[in-house]
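Q: What changes when GLP is included in the input?
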Amino acid sequence: MEIIVKENELQAGKAAFAIFEKAIKDGAKVLGLATGSTPLTLYQNWVESDLDCSDLTSINLDEYVGLKPEDPQSYHYFMQKHLFDQKPFKKTYVPDGLASDIPAFCQEYDQLIKDNPIDVQLLGIGRNGHIAFNEPGTPFDIGTHEVKLTENTINANSRFFDNIEDVPKSAICMGTANIMASKKIVLMAFGEQKAHAIKMMVEGPITEEVPASILQKHPDVTVIVDEAAASEL
Ligand code: GLP
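A: The predicted holo structure follows.
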């Protein structure tokens, strides 16, 4: 794992964008994208750039179950607002939170990823070491699946909702196996609340109790953190 420590989120966003830009110039066509507050500075650099995205495909990590794409809390909405509206891609995929047959949808999403292998996968990390919504205890060999969110994640994500009761209780998300199959991974994390998760991911044992720890086994991972998130390393 390569660890890059930047002074602040803005510098980190620039560094992350430089990696994506280079990969795209070198031929990357399929990007695995992520939501949350962490990638915002990356997307800001992206929309301000002159990078042409019309030949790119994106596949997002996850979506809340039960939210319509036009719901401002949905990850569909987030991606439109922060990236796709300003930088149209050839094709964008975000899991369908309204799928009527979720297991069948998850199989289709796995097939989509097989048919469009991900060149660069962007990740954030949860305070408990989750990646996408793969919570502690999720098997490492799992594909796209429906996940019941932990209290910890519901609490952390409630800051985006008016009431904690409005936070969906489950999500559809790519599994750890899908993430590990991508050729290159860029993980970003900021702030003191992420410091322990970063330490466990980088230095801890590889265990399903810390989903991000599996990244130690991936051959090409770049971790971009600010000083606070790096403070326990
Ligand atoms: C959610 C998302 C993750 C994200 C994490 C951290 O659980 N499903 O993909 O990495 O939150 O979010 P933030 O970047 O807002 O701290």
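Observations recorded in class: The longest helix spans residues 9-25.
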